[in-house]
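This part of the workshop introduces the protein records we will be handling. To make this concrete, we reproduce a full record directly below.
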Amino acid sequence: MKVLIYKWKVFNQEDIAEAFFDYGYEVVEYEEPSVYLDEAKGLKFHDNNELTNIIKGVDMVFSFNYFAHISDICNKLGIIYISYTVDSPLISLYHNSIYNPCNYIFVFDKFFYYQLKELELEHLFYLPLGANAKRIESQLEKSNIPSCLDIKDYKYDLSFVGGMYHRNSYDNIKDKLDEDLKNYFNEVLKEQLFSPGMDIIDNSLSVELLTKLLEITDFKQSEGSFSDILTVFTNTFLGFKLANIERVVILNALAAALKNYGYKVDLFTDDTDNNLENVILHNTVDYNIEMPEIFRQSKINLNISLRNIRTGIPLRVWDVLASGGFLLTNKQIELEDYFKIGEDLVVFESIDEAVTKSLYYLEHEKERKEIARSGFERVKKYHSYCQRIGDILDCIAGNKE
């Protein structure tokens, strides 16, 4: 059996390839050259002849996230297409091609899964993300970095590895908004910042307002797409702007509080923000090599989930735990389904709680190390990508019977 991994700029693709190999599959990897973009029509053009020739030589195609043109080719050839989301909501799934019977779609956010379930798709499944803890453990051992229990010389007190969303779609169109609209969205974002979830944003967009936004954003749908301005503006405009505001506020609060006790906050990102204060800035780091080293060598690793991910566990949670790092994360409903809160990881529900718990665990090293070890062992034992691919293959086999 042969599987094609359709590669793009996303992490963990090599771990997926390794998992398929462990199940006896021959693995072929393909990264599509840059596609031609017709900006006037908002359309991307692919070399479907080349893709068809490559895909017809395999038994199934796998990709993180969903690509309509890959689905259409697989459907014509009668080849299974596996799509495994790493973003939520994934706008590309709002496309007519999702009804292709070749599709097996796996969604990590249960909230989004239930939204998609209303579309009555033939092969739709919920599946959390995971990590390759064994690879990371071996890699860190080769780099002579001590285990999460044995490490003594930490490089960082509290680290955050991730985007700041300083360059976001909302700021790109902000100058096109009149003052009333600017003030309105400022109030909506401010109110949502200190309230959980996205309910305030969800309820802020009337039909009249959405009609205005259609013109302001120059909203275009690609051929076959049925996404709408409400979904797009809520998530890619307001959602990412909220992420920018929230991450700056939380990092600044932590940096100010920890500074009083002699601790530092380090940020690793390719997208800094001029509003950050007392935060030590670093360039972005390599996902496979440098990132696990930072997680292991940080006393505390911070995760701030995008609010767009309504209930699911984002990839960063799995990354930190698989590296043997201590994780302090915002509350996500699904965390309790897979982890023991306070034993595998620590959760905060407010900025004040993030500060309080950061200071506590910086001062309680033994307790912190035990939590890091427990989280690592749980991911290693129950949440490998090999196990996830096994789940995917079982779903496919079950639907073939």
The CA atoms of residues 130 and 152 lie 28 Å apart. Residues 2-130+385-400 form a domain with the Rossmann fold fold (CATH 3.40.50.2300). The longest helix spans residues 229-259. The two ends are 18 Å apart (CA to CA).
